[in-house]
Amino acid sequence: MMQAVIQRILLGFVLILGVIVLNFFLLQAAPGDVVDAMLAEAGGGDPELAARLRQSYGLDQPVYIQLIKYLGQVCIGDLGYSFYYDEPVATLILSHLPTTLMLTLSALILAVLFGTLFGVYAAIKPKGVFSNFVTIFSLFGYATPVFWLGMIVLLVFALYLPWFPAFGIRSIPEPEDSLERVLDIIHHLVLPTFTLAVLYLANYSRISRASMLDVLGADYIRTARTKGLSERKVIFKHALKNASLPVVTLAGLQLAQVFSGAVLVETVFSLPGVGPLLYESIMRRDFPVILGVLFGAATTTIVANIITDLIYKWMDPRIQSIT
Amino acid sequence: MMLKRLNIKLAIAFVCGMLILPISVSQVEADEPVKGGTVVYLSSKIPSLNPLHSAYEVGLVTSQIFASLVRMDENNEIAPYLAESWEVSNAGKTYTFHLAENAKFHDGQPVTSEDLAFSFDIVKKHHRFGKQMFGPIDSYEYPNANTLIVHLSKPHGPLLLAATTPRQLPVMPKHVYGSADDFMKQDAHKNPIGSGPFVISDRKTDEYVSIARNDSHFVDGLPYLDKIIYQNVQDKTAKRIGLRKNQFQLARTDSVMRFSDIKEFSKVEHLQLTPYDGIAGGAIVLEFNNRKEPLNNKAVRQAIAFAVNRSQISNVLHGGYTVPSRSPLPATNVFFNPELQGYKFDLDKANALLDGAGYPKKSDGMRFELNLIYIAQPFMPDFNTLPAEFLAASLKKIGIKVKLEPLQGFAGWAERSAAWDFDMSINWPGDKTDPAIGVSRLYVCDNIKNQAYTNTSGYCDAEVDKIFEMAAVEPDIEKRRELYFRVQDILLEEMPMLWLFDTPSLFFNHKDLFFPSYGTAENWDVMYWKKAQ
């Protein structure tokens, strides 16, 4: 078991290295660089200045030298310096990460919890009203573009019913009291979390409903019922544990996205998260930031996969024997 | 209006410290500036506080943190600021500046002639227009701590105009910014220290920047406001909600809405639409690649100019909020010739010109095909996508097929522009107040370079070069005007590019807020609330 984990971690490092190299070359293919973007944005500049800027950013060197330099830096934990933000990339990402994690993790937790419950109750009476509601709701959540949903949510709950703020992660100035500060942030996060959770939730309710229906028809459930177990025990103890494997798979996949998977929601609600940082950096060709965010995303994906595997083994002992 | 004007004058009186409070103060109490209060400005991202950063919004903040040498007053004339007075001598080759003695940086150190010389040098080297603005500066003399004598290698017309805004000449403390190896990379950009009316009070990257009044500002009585907050909002729906709900008291319309939406927002009770009333301007232009056939033919370029109904762009597509350009200079420029009318829409003339130039219509009704590059993002479609599509439809009528090539982001467009890889390109060059800084660069032969915003159209004419050169070194403003009038005539005839429409800036501000829309529209120390909020 331990050996398998170590193996996975080592493999992870190789993967991350591959991701960096691949991204590096992909970015070289993008038209223009950060100096083009900055000078064009400011409406001018002469070639000498452009050349000096490129030199100061190290962009005048051959690509392979830039790559080797970058890899060397990453090995000692330095993700480089953002040309656009005038700040080290690591600082920049760390300052944007809490917002993103608060948003994505709370949306994920809500979605897993409620999505699974919805699915389970829908599966108990697959032809009932609630089941139909879940199916339609899932379809809606699945098919709605998230930015559209965000806009509607904004209009309804920030303009017509002004219950929640339309932008940002906190009020300015922030409340003095630390408890109020926390409540203020939660207040700002309600709409974006709701929007993202609806999107996620659709997946979980669909999958858990289907999986529960499968499991409920299995022999061992009939056995459990004939033993005289209460329906509650049958559903939650016997059926759900097995039925939730696909849910774990999906949650694992989405856990991998917590780092940068909410670009649209963060943009619609003007949250200072990693998503808008990535978008902005792509528009400005701020390569160190793009590479840094992608590095973070790759690492999260690999870690999330390892965690998912471990949870699998714990939930389904059969998997242990296969590895 | 009269009262307001008077009151702006009052504000300027404080700035200059030269006029004595007129007795008529009590008569204008309706518009009396209230001291204090906060203004929230609807901003985009403010990535850095480096005063020479490329992002527009950064300059909006640093223009309050730093003071410039001189500034524009409400009549759009150059007025004292850090320099209390100055003399020009030696046939325009020597400038002597006398700095305000009570001017201090935010760390308490006095602003000295050494700081000024240091700032000139930094700007010359690192600013995007450093060379055009202060290139001829040769050497300095320091008679005392408050006097700087600047020697130029040749007379330089735009020098003072270039020094009117901290965007172009932020006067920086040498003891803070002078120690870094690379000016562009240093910690001081996180917490800038200037001598301007406001100091940085708080900042969260990609969220907001908040600045507070500098209590020991060297101009008595200013600034009026206690605080300005630059709130970053990305989404257009959220921006509009915030504007409607008075969460912002000041915003540029072009970052919030399209021209077609302005009318609706003008009806919001607490909002007032204020047009920019200064001298810096710009225009959206259709740049021709003058090297390539058939655009190397003057008649073809003129034909295109006749074929585009530009008043329709302004009046119909833009709801009347832009004006068709009448000259290579925007109508706001001091050297603009108001008698020029530009090309009038005339399809017959356009067709005749093309026939005469040897490009007859073929059997399919088309003469030739041209590509057109433009930035599809992140600008509002009003400035790029809409005109591009309108042009394609217009030119089709005279038998020119246009292949639209929308490009994503500044970088994609800048690369094509720099490589001269286009037939036509939609460009948005600003005039940077002085034609010697922002206009001549687009036409003179020695600025034909592989770099966006240089003379990428490849137009080259010895006479135009000569006039631009003479105008740049001419200290007398009337003589400069004559020269620029001449160059406008020549360029209108030659049509190296088609000047589509001037791009005025429009602002929404709270109706109780006085917003100084003159000069650079960035002298926010004289912005004030007319009623206590």
Number of helices of chain B: 16
User: Helix/strand-derived class of chain A?
Assistant: mainly alpha
* Largest sheet report of chain A: 2 strands, antiparallel
Strand order of the largest sheet of chain A: 1-2
Q: From the helix content, strand content and strand pairing of chain B, which structural class follows?
A: alpha+beta
The rounded distance between the terminal residues' Cα atoms of chain B is 22 Å
Let me know the average pLDDT of chain B.
90
Query: Taking Cα atoms only, what radius of gyration of chain B do you get, to the nearest Å?
Result: 24 Å
Notable traits:
heterodimer; A: 323 residues; mainly alpha; 2 strands; B: 533 residues; alpha+beta; 6-stranded mixed β-sheet; 4-stranded mixed β-sheet; 21 strands
Notes on the structure:
The complex is a heterodimer of chains A (323) and B (533). Chain A has 323 residues and is mainly alpha-helical. Chain A has helices at 2-28, 34-41, 47-57, 63-75, 89-124, 129-143, 146-160, 178-216, 219-226, 231-243, 245-255, 263-268, 274-284, 287-315, 317-322, and strands at 81-82, 87-88. A two-stranded antiparallel ribbon of chain A has the order 1-2. In chain A, helix 5 packs antiparallel against helix 6 (129-143) and helix 8 crosses helix 10. The radius of gyration of chain A is 24 Å and the shape is globular. The N and C termini of chain A lie close together (9 Å). The mean pLDDT of chain A is 88. By secondary structure, chain B is of the alpha+beta class. Helices cover 29% and strands 21% of the residues of chain B. Chain B is built from 16 helices and 21 strands. Chain B has helices spanning 2-16, 56-65, 113-126, 130-134, 159-162, 174-177, 236-244, 259-266, 298-307, 310-317, 347-356, 385-396, 409-418, 435-438, 462-473, 477-494; strands spanning 38-43, 70-72, 78-80, 83-89, 94-99, 137-144, 147-152, 198-204, 208-213, 227-232, 250-252, 271-275, 283-288, 323-324, 368-377, 400-408, 424-427, 497-502, 506-510, 513-514, 528-529. In chain B, the strands form six sheets. Chain B has a six-stranded mixed beta sheet with strand order 14-18-13-17-15-16. A four-stranded mixed beta sheet of chain B has the order 1-10-9-8, with helices on one face. In chain B, helix 12 links the parallel strand 15 and strand 16. Chain B starts with a helix and ends with a strand. Mean pLDDT of chain B is 90; it is low at 1-29.
